[in-house]
Specification:
187 residues, single chain, alpha/beta
């Protein structure tokens, strides 16, 4: 919901949020310019959600969807012709996931789907979208260095300085960040 508030404050006149968590209705009851719809995108129809959106954003959502292909079809139905889709998902190809495997946040509970750059692009391509931008963020550099130093990855940094060769710049340049961002437009 923070993104909706920021979007509205940045000049987007109408912002709509869809979430199954009913607690958000209390948060957005008094928010101007933000409409909250309780439910899931998969279960709502165009009457409830509307059409011709300029931007659809999914922050850490697509990995939770039971049918991501259906979700992409919904994007196609409700997005304006020049609209964009912004997606953030855990990166299956991240360095943290490759090294720490089951300790990686990629494998958190309730993730029936896992995405790498190629699989996210392929999913969106099948739905009629092409990538405009693909990036990774969140290096998890301290967690990786701790793990490689035989420490628990999620504590304060206690790593061996020998692993200073792994830098955030290197992780970013090689698409090895913990989260994958994709921005897509219609083909």
């Amino acid at each position: 919901g923070v993104f909706l508030k920021m979007a509205h404050q940045s000049g987007w006149p109408e912002c709509v949020g869809v979430d199954p968590n009913e607690n958000y209705s209390k948060i957005y009851k008094e928010a101007k310019g933000i409409q909250y719809i309780q439910g899931t995108l998969e279960k709502l129809d165009e009457y409830h959600i509307g059409t011709h959106y300029d931007c659809i954003s999914m922050w850490s959502v697509l990995e939770h969807m039971n049918d991501p292909q259906k979700t992409v079809r919904i994007f196609s139905d409700i997005l304006s012709p020049d609209g964009v889709v912004f997606i953030l998902v855990p990166n299956l190809d991240s360095l943290a996931t490759r090294l720490m495997r089951q300790l990686s946040p990629t494998f958190a509970w309730k993730h029936p789907n896992f995405f790498c750059k190629e699989s996210l692009v392929m999913l969106m391509d099948k739905g009629g979208f092409k990538p405009v931008l693909m990036e990774t963020i969140i290096t998890e550099i301290d967690n990786i260095r701790n793990y490689m130093s035989f420490e628990w990855p999620y504590e304060a940094a206690h790593y061996d300085e020998a692993f200073d060769i792994i830098t955030p710049e290197w992780i970013h340049a090689n698409m090895l960040g913990s989260r994958l961002i994709g921005i897509f437009k219609r083909k």
